[in-house]
Amino acid sequence: MHDIFLKMEEKTPHTVQESDATYDHVLKYTGLFGGIQGITMLVSVARNKVVSEFLGPSGMALINLFNNAIHLINQSTDFGLSFSAVKHVAELFDHGTEEEVHQFVKTVRTWCLFSGLLGMLICLALSRQISYWTFETYDYMPHFAILSLMVGMLAVQGGEIAILKGMKKLKKVALISVFSALATLLISTPIYLFWGVDGIVCSLVLCTVAVLAIHLRESTKVVPWSVSFFSKDEYSKGLPMLKLGVGYIIAGIFGQGAEYVIRALILRFGELADVGLYNSGYILAVSYANIVFVAFEADYFPRLSASHHDPERMNKTINQQIEVGVLLMAPVLTFFVLAMPVIVPLLFSSEFVDAVPMAICASFFMFFRALALPVAYLALAKGDSHMYMLTELVYDIFIAIAIPYAFKWWGLEGAGWALSVAGFLDMMLVHVLYGIHYGYRFNFSKMKVYGFLFICFTVAVITALHENPWMKIVTALMLVVSAIVSFRVLKSETQIIPYIKQKLWRK
Questions:
Q1: What are the phi and psi torsion angles at 188 (to 5°)?
Q2: Taking the mean position of all CA atoms in its chain, how far away is CA 243?
Q3: How many angstroms separate the Cα of 482 from the Cα of each of 284, 306, 340, 487?
Q4: CB within 8 Å of 422: residues ≥ 6 apart
Q5: Vertex 44 angle, CA 42 and 50, to 5°
Q6: Pairwise CA distance, residues 501 & 507, whole Å
Q7: What is the pTM of this model?
Q8: DSSP conformation class of 229
Q9: Are 415 and 266 in contact (CB under 8 A)?
């Protein structure tokens, strides 16, 4: 594993001129970063299994509600530093001196410490209200008061990871991701085993302490810890970061706020267990499949940023990423749809089987996301925070209303279909809006392939939802067809298959 991380750092995506990136490059880095994320995902799967076995749907719902509330406060008070600091540190790292880099890192840490303490105090002061807004009772006020510690630690943690990203220490970023997941699993397992639901708050706080310690251990090796908490100069030097981060913090509040509202309303319309089932369905339909998109931030975004001034190169970059994303996502999603009844008891427990239909209905969301996400990054590449906020706001308002009320009228399956509809509308919005505003043009020559894969996937979803077990044969057939088509297209446009054969032959 360490060799993989080392190679990744030696040949970071930022060092490659990606205006003329090939399909091989796109596929290579999708696999590379996706594989690293896959290690973390496996540990997360084990952690979810522990939670589901020891706490059940209600316990998972409590963890999810606590996390959503805490992350919403963190998003609202961290000034967008975890995003904006990356750009400023990267610019100094590329063009400034080592002393200038270290001095600005000190500024970042000072601001992050300040924002963390501010967020912690706000959470502590509002703990009574947050308890009522979330659960319609004041009984959880002590829980949120203790969890306010997480807000402070998350702010510092965000600053440290931003520093490492800005200084292009991808090896350390990857190691932190894996070790943090392992630490969380090792800490939470005995706590849930012995204390069950009563240990949730303790587990969340201790896991955050451990993850912060891992971040600090790695980042302080690069730049020793130093802050000037009471220095006016440090705060004034950090103001440009705040200006850049305002648009993205607002968009982050929209997103985290929508997730908070969805779960709070599901709790109003149903029971605590329903929130846990919705969350597990979301994890199955979105979070696990999301591994395919990991390369977007690590590799695709720098390439798009380098090419967005040239319309021809910009469109080529976006459409290449769309094609690779769809070709990889179609068979992956079809496999998930087919294996869902088996996967759920393995990843969670038999108590979560009611989440299977919802996850299957919601799986269209990720297919549409493969078509939408490469385009959506265009606003970020151009630094257009207003356009980014607009599209995020429209999407978040829709899901905050549609998903809870679809659950109220049609249960968990309705919530799943609402998520899929949201994915379709988001895809249409960014394609039309960015086409008008930025001159993006979709490559319609690939529509036959996309359309055929979509039809195969639709048939797979319909047959997977059918009660007749024999219909699963049709689902399996669609998986085979989808995999063959994707394989043949990738083979015709890349050299990845000969490369794999060469590696296997050497072994």
A1: -75, -30
A2: 24
A3: 20, 33, 17, 8
A4: 365, 395, 398, 399, 402, 403
A5: 110
A6: 10
A7: 0.71
A8: T
A9: yes
CB neighbour class for 297 (10 Å; exposed up to 12, middle 13-18, buried from 19): middle
Residue scoring higher pLDDT (477 or 320): 477
In tens, the pLDDT along 3-33 reads 433 333 433 334 444 444 544 444 454 544 4
Among candidate residues 214, 212, 223, 14, the one with its CA nearest the CA of residue 104: 223
State the amino acid at position 119 in one-letter form. G
Q: Is 114 helix (H, G, I), strand (E, B) or coil?
A: helix
Locate the domains of the chain by residue range: 1-269, 270-507
Q: What is the DSSP string of 423-488?
A: HHHHHHHHHHHHHHHH-----GGGHHHHHHHHHHHHHHHHHHHSS-GGGHHHHHHHHHHHHHHHHH
Distances (CA, A) of 458 to 324, 417, 433, 489: 20, 13, 27, 20
For the stretch 379-407, pLDDT in tens is 877 877 778 888 888 999 999 999 999 99
CB contact at 8 A, 465 and 360: yes
Q: Helix/strand/coil (H, E, C) string of 119-184?
A: HHHHHHHCHHHHHHHHHCCCCCHHHHHHHHHHHHHHHHHHHHHHHHHHCCCHHHHHHHHHHHHHHH
Q: How far is C-alpha 90 from the chain's CA centre?
A: 22
Residue that the structure tokens 């730049």 belong to: 223
Lookup: tokens for 494: 């890349």
C-alpha dist (Å) from residue 142 to 130, 306, 445, 489: 11, 49, 58, 56
Contact indicator for 308, 378 with CB cutoff of 8 Å: yes
Confidence (pLDDT) at 408: 93
From the list 50, 52, 65, 60, the residue with the least C-alpha distance to 273 is: 60
Backbone torsions φ then ψ of 21, nearest 5 degrees = -60, 140
User: Is 144 within 8 Å of 184 (Cβ atoms)?
Assistant: no
The letter for the amino acid at 307 is: S
